[in-house]
Amino acid sequence: MSTWEPVLAAVRLALGPDRAEGRRRLLACWHATSPAGHAQRCVLAHYLADLEPELTDEVRWDEQALAAYAAVSDPDLAPIGIASAAGFAPSLHLNLGDGYLRQGRVSDARSQLEAGSAAAALLADDGYGRMIRGGLQGLAQRLADHQ
Question: For the whole model, what pTM was predicted?
């Protein structure tokens, strides 16, 4: 069994029929990883953020995902079908920027939008790429509304 199998099973559960059990399993996977498990911690934190009912906790997980991402390379994510680690960055910046904006941290949100937009050039022109670009455009519009 690959070390990614429990993570992917927990993600599928969290995105599907049982968010609470998926969150419980994602947390168990988090606690089973070492601090050097940057790729798994990045992915786990990315999904855990979306399962948090409290904005402060959501942002904390998004910050952890982005911090772990700094040490992630292409081979680290290849086992889960992500060909380029760089393609994961725009989503991480988008999520963190959105959280910051909802916290009223407009300057921090703007910084994340800029980083996400710069990284978006690496996204393919496919459904995922369009979704993330659309999210970045939506964040830009919400930021413009704060001026």
Answer: 0.93
pLDDT digits (tens, 9 = 90+) for 93-138: 999 999 999 999 999 999 999 999 999 998 889 998 999 999 999 9
Rg (CA), the chain: 15
> What HEC string does the chain produce?
CCCCHHHHHHHHHHHCCCHHHHHHHHHHHHHHCCCCCHHHHHHHHHHHHHCCCCHHHHHHHHHHHHHHHCCCCHHHHHHHCCCCHHHHHHHHHHHHHHHHHHCCCHHHHHHHHHHHHHHHHHCCCCHHHHHHHHHHHHHHHHHHCCC
- At residue 53, what are phi and psi to the nearest 5 degrees? -80, -25
Domain boundaries in the chain?
1-73, 84-147
